Amino acid sequence: MTLDEALALDAADPLAHCRERFVLPDGVIYFDGNSLGALPRATAAAVADTVERQWGDDLIASWNRHDWIGAPQRLGDRIAPLIGAAPGGVLVADSTSITLFTLLAAALAARPGRSTILSDTGNFPSDLYIAQGLAAMTPATLRTVDPEAVEAAIDSDTAVVMLTHVDYRSGRRHDMQSLTAAAHEAGALMLWDLSHSAGAIAVDLNAAGADLAVGCGYKYLNGGPGAPAFLFVAEALQDQLASPLSGWLGHADPFAFESDYRPAPGIARFQAGTPSILAMAALEAGMATFDGVSMADLETKSRRLSE
Fold it and tell me: Whole-angstrom Cα distance, residue 241 to residue 229?
């Protein structure tokens, strides 16, 4: 490729304007978005406004005045189009490890008589650690097989298949549609970790019939270090599954301060503790970097650069 050819590609790039949405040091070409997304230009002002005006001036009234209380579902609805989910299908809360534990435990409880969590040997290590910890607390067993052997390993004892969609080392992708269909055919639930997919490639959870998914906010979603994670629950399952973390904000009427827990309807039942509002302000600014961006264009550019 010649310099002129590269310049011609730049001139025709439908994403060229997005470069101005980020702050990067001069002379730096950044390839580590897989671990920490670059700083969006709007983030510092958004966090400062949340601290100085909302918290500083409006104090506790900000839970309603600035919709702090609605942030987990509002941000979930902003993530939803990037992963092929409908409004009301995604919730921003906690860390990826906690959301993964929550959904794995809910899936096991929803499949009584089955005790296997099936994954692959190439899965992201922390996902395996969470499954190992859950298995140590329950009658469940974590079984791992080679990535190519997952579909054949799904059997009548499989309660949930847990896979990371994109391999963090090689970029290899699992076939979301075919593996989800195989899990359903065997009566199992399908849980996808989208931490290395969301914001990087086109994903369509609903088209694939996926049951559950988790993902992080600090990589391609540009939410900042330690940004909150997200979870997805298919609409048909939302009122069937029980969260093992029956926290205050997952209650049907949290401000009634009842002694006994009643789960909220829909995705809200998967909330537990109070959301981190300052972190969510940064994540919301990160999500704005995708405004007007086609994931198909983004994925096409990624392929052209890597090829």
Answer: 19
